[in-house]
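Form 12-C: Joint structure prediction
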Amino acid sequence: MSPRTRHSLEFVLDNLVWFMLVFVLAVFSIFIPNFFQLGIFANIIEASSVLGVMSIGLALVIIAGHMDLSVESVAALSAMAVGIMFCSSGIGLGLQLHPDWLMVPVSLAIALAVGGIIGIINGFLIVRLKMSAFIITLASYIWVRGLVLVVSGGRSAQDLAPAIRWFGIQRLAGLPLTAWIAVSCFVVFSLILAKTPFGRHLVMIGGNETATFRAGIRVNRNLIIAFVLAGAIAGLAGWLLAIRTSGATANLGVGLLFNAFAAVVIGGVSLKGGVGTLPGVYAGVLLLSAINTAINLMGLPANFTQVIHGLLVLAAVLLDAFKQTIRQKLA
Amino acid sequence: MSEPLLVLDNVAKNYGAIQALRGISFSIRRGEVVALLGDNGAGKSTLVKIIAGGLEPTSGRMLFEGKEFLARSPAEAKAAGIETVYQDLSLCTNVDVVANFFMGREITRKVLGVPVLDERAMEAVVAKALANAGTRIPSLRTKVEHLSGGQRQAIELNRFVHWGGKLVLLDEPFAALGVEQTRRGLDMIRQVASQGIGVVIITHIMQQAFQVADRIVVIRQGVVAGDVARNKTSPDAVINMITGETLAGAGPAS
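Section 2 - Result
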């Protein structure tokens, strides 16, 4: 095999999920009437913003060889915190700040702080006390959702302050600002993961934690940062969710965790750690979103989405095994 | 005689009621190669981990370059100039050769105040280091998982030769190497020592110890059972020290 064919084959394998996305979009465009229009594509991106942002944090900790099941509940708690403070009806307190735009940074800071604090708790218990990330974050998944129910009393907050809502309404090049926030998060964190020492260390910790520790990398510190980031990013997802629904309900975002896992796995991240890139995860998110949109357009009952998502995850895992065999032949 | 580089003074390590090290005392000079021998479970690897910062001793003290020394983490040991090659390789197989070579010491440049990996500079350094050592790896961008055991060990050995430091600890470094690569590895050790770096090599193979070491230290049941210059002993005498049949030449060298 010549170096060039080998090189292009590697390229295809590394970006397989993007090729899948293009293929799926092409098939939908051909076979589903009215699919091929800019508005539909914009809708796919828009509908995936919350899931996309949440998947970034999840992918970071999984790549570092751990796990964070709490992201969904954390997003709900952040959304509820923002909802209670800045919604004017339901359980909302209708807090007003002057000038109005001040509510944007304040609400965002609250959402990030709520997420970051839970991230610190998770990270501390997992890293310092050497407990299993699966169990610790499963506990957080449950108690944080419980906290949402406690603070809301099971009721909801509606009518988010217009100054914050503005991010969901104002459009730039056909996309609401919330979607741009998600896209820029992917760009920023992709660069951090691929180009900075911190990102490189996370990948290596996911690959062989003992080796990185022996090499003098501060493993514990890096891992705690990763959990705090995952929490804060989930907080951001919650902020976006509050904007999208103009408030918060006690069961907000239920089920998002499994979609986030699906996106991460479809995006080529290995649950064993050390493998995967964030652009791949974004392609996974868009793929899920494209399929949802297609199902809506075809008028199929929405219940089908879950069946298809499940099959897609299965296909992704099989594909990953297939990729491994090809790579072994390449080497 | 120059001042010793590292002095171990009665270093002990307990795991609960089990005494892995009962009090180890010996010293290493600059440019000296010390072979650490001992039966399985004698405490060699524990000792290496204590010097390298992976474990803390229960009691005893160490002097490094004449100063009191205790590494609480591998990072601290590295900062002091102690490099370690472990028997189970310390490579991240999910990243490429360059990333492994620079693990924890990446070259960066600032972009808008943010440190960014300088891949080109790192690749150039690795290419040069591997070429100097005569190691051939097709592409430095290959992930290590796709390389052979020998190539992996070569990366690890070249890494310590390149970074050097002041003291190098090698825990059975040639376990996966062929005859020719082992010979080259032993040459590397002599070359490193000739630069004034102290080397401690753990090995099971008597022949290797006699080929490369200036001094042979035998550990048995957590204590030093023998500490002799290579040219004043013989493989048979050393084997007797390991198994405990004689105590000829025992005790730390004065």
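Section 3 - Comments
Chain B has a mean pLDDT of 83. The helical segments of chain B are 44-52, 74-80, 97-101, 119-133, 149-163, 179-194, 206-212, 235-243.
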